[in-house]
Write a structure and sequence with these properties.
The chain is an alpha+beta fold and 95 residues long. The longest helix is centred in the N-terminal third of the chain and has 15 residues.
């Protein structure tokens, strides 16, 4: 299965169980050998899915809003498409 098809399936599964997922931002963590899919839920939360097998399967969702947004922010959303990885291993999502 291609990665773009797998991401579509992952987002479709999220849509079935949760309201208004949006702004999908896939990013590859080369150092860890994983793919992360960040997305927003109702523009109030940022959630992440992780794949360790090139998109064949995905982890349960983890809410990372507290790590990436201030409580005073009215809306949050990852910026697609994807991001980059610094030499330190830190992942930057956005354009």
């Amino acid at each position: 299965m291609g990665l773009d098809v797998s991401l579509y399936i992952a987002m479709a599964e999220v849509s079935f169980f949760y309201l208004s997922p949006g702004n999908p931002a896939p990013i590859e963590d080369v150092m860890a050998g994983t793919i992360l899919l960040l997305f927003s839920r109702n523009t109030r939360q940022v959630l992440v899915l992780e794949s360790r097998d090139e998109g064949e399967t995905w982890s349960n969702m983890v809410d990372i809003t507290g790590m990436v947004a201030l409580p005073s922010w009215f809306r949050v959303a990852p910026s697609s498409p994807g991001g980059l990885q610094l030499p330190t291993g830190r992942l930057i999502v956005g354009k």
